[in-house]
User: Fold this.
Amino acid sequence: MSKIYEALQNVHREKKDRGEAERSAPVPFAPFEPAGLGLEDEMLSLYKVIETLLPHHKSKIVQFISASEGEGSSTICREFAKVVADLIGHSVLLLDADRLNHSQDRFFDIQSGRDWVDALRNGRDIEGSWQRAGQSKLYVSGCSNSSVSTPEIFNSSFERMCEKLRTRFDLVLIDTAPLAHSPDGLAIASKVDGVVLVVEAEKSRWQTVRRMRDSIFRVEGNILGVVLNKRRFYIPQSIYRRL
Assistant:
C-alpha cells in the first residue's frame, strides 16, 4: 500500500479525533515516490486519496502549497495534473496562482493574455483565461507577474470564479506561492475543497511545516495531508519493496 495513502489517511483520522483541541503536534509526513513505486503510481495513489477524502465533491478544487521556495510544490502539482488528465481522463484545469514566480505558464508556454487574475480584475469572461495543453484534457491558466497584492483573491470574485470552474472541469488544481513568500496561499486555502502540503525531505524543519499547517487551520483550510518530496533512500530498493 502506498505510504502517501497511509500518511494522508492518518491525517484525516487525526482531524476527526482532534476536534477543536489545540493543534500542537508535528505534522505527519508522507513520502513522495517511495522505492518500488514510480511517479505515475504515486500520483494515481494521491488521486485515490483525494477521492476518498472528498467523496461528496463531484468537481474538486485542490490547492498545493509549500512553506518555502524550492520544495517542489509546483512540480508535484503539475505532474499530478498531467496524470489525472492523461491516465484517468478527467478534465483538469491547472491554475497558476504564484504571481511572483509563475512557472506553470512558462512550462506549458502559455500565450500572453491567458491570465485568470487579469480576467477577474478587468471583468472579462474566465473562459478566455486558459489554454489547452496539446491534445490532452489538461488546461492551464497563467498568472500575472506582479509584486502587487491581488485583492481579487480575497473577495467574492474568486469564489464566483471557482463555482463557474466546477461546472467546466472535473478537477481544478491551484499552484500557490510558498507561504514564506506570499499570503495569497492562505487567502485561497479557505476557499478550496482541500489543501495538499508539499515538504522537502531532509531540509524543511518540522517547526516551519507546523507553522504552515497551523496558519492554514486558522483560516479554516481543509488540509488533506502532506507529501514528502525529494526523499533519498539509503538502503537498496529491493529491501524497500518488501516493506
Observations:
- Strands lie at 60-66, 92-97, 131-132, 138-141, 171-176, 194-200, 223-229.
- Residues 18-36 have pLDDT under 50 and may be disordered.
- The two ends are 10 Å apart (CA to CA).
- The CA atoms of residues 183 and 238 lie 43 Å apart.
